[in-house]
Amino acid sequence: MTFNFQYDKHSPREMDEFVFVKMAASIRKEPNSNAKVIKSAAYSHKYRTTGIVKSNTGNKSDEWYEVFFDNQIGYIPKSAVEKREFDWNDMMAKVEKTNKFIKEAVSANKKIYVLDDYVPLGGGESGKRDKFGNRANQSEFGYTDKSFKDYINIPDRTIMIVEEENDKYVKVKIDAYDNGTYYLKPSTKRYLKDAGITGEITRFIYVDRASQNEMVIEKAGDNWNVVTSSFVTTGKDAGNSFATPYGTFLIAYSKPVMQYTGSDNKAVVGDAKNAVRFSGGGYMHSIPSLFEPKNTREQRKAETAKKIGTYPESHKCIRHYDDQIKFIYDWLGNSTPGHSEGFRVPSVPTVMLVK
């Protein structure tokens, strides 16, 4: 894998493993509370780390993270930070697994389908979380056997193949969910659409919800290259909001502006630019903001931007810095110029992997 970034304004370097500061703390010259303070670490700051060390004096059970900054080494209490990472290994494992699934399907002359049942401003029930943490919102039930009792929630835009079909069920195989076999009720078949995938996927967007970051890669020849990376904000599972779903999703389309409604789901109250739909009403997009009050809109957007890379906070979508998502929006391209609604289907099939 190469790192020839096409856009790197928000791409951290040498941060494969890092700590996120969850409470203000002092970074000290040695791993003990009496050592000299060499830097004050504020909330949301991030530092490269090599791992945990034990205190070198006093309470030997105290643990500290060794961190790097400004060509210095320091130590910060484990209790003040969260360990996070840019998980390149997991990303590539998922990329290879997804493409293996696709190649085997294509070799066997099996059509690849995508679940396509999104209704704008719809969404249905939230329901209980399944074993993958996904709720029923903007999903269909995938039953574990023909009895139609136990099930998982299959989110919109999930990739699958049909293994068997009759008047009682549609048996599908879904790589993202344990490479498992699931049974759909016949009425669900109408939501399965031809994914238009005829060979391996050469573009992936990988989102890590635990570390609140994202990597974008593209294949050129036999090699994968990192196009860009950044911190992001994913969805929070609470009340009227949902966690960004876990899975493998075929990007549907992009559009210049995504509008959203208030709590009544009727009046449009705000928007975000450069929106890329990946599952149900889940979009990648710029910093969202309410239209009113107009005079504080930019200030409010700036405050929201400060929270990127901290904790899940969106309603399901993935928030980006404005310029970061504009780059991705342009990079995805447009195979449907002149679309009546301005929708831009990516120039080549592009898959989002959500960890």
TrEMBL record:
Pathway assigned in UniProt: Cell wall biogenesis; peptidoglycan biosynthesis
Residue ranges of every copy of the L,D-TPase catalytic domain listed in the record: 203-337
Lineage per the UniProt record: Bacteria, Fusobacteriati, Fusobacteriota, Fusobacteriia, Fusobacteriales
Keyword Cell wall biogenesis/degradation annotated: yes
Listed GO biological process terms: cell wall organization; peptidoglycan biosynthetic process; regulation of cell shape
Gene Ontology molecular functions: transferase activity
Residues spanning the membrane: none
Pfam family, one: YkuD
Record key words, sorted: Cell shape, Cell wall biogenesis/degradation, Peptidoglycan synthesis, Transferase
Name of this chain's protein: ErfK/YbiS/YcfS/YnhG family protein
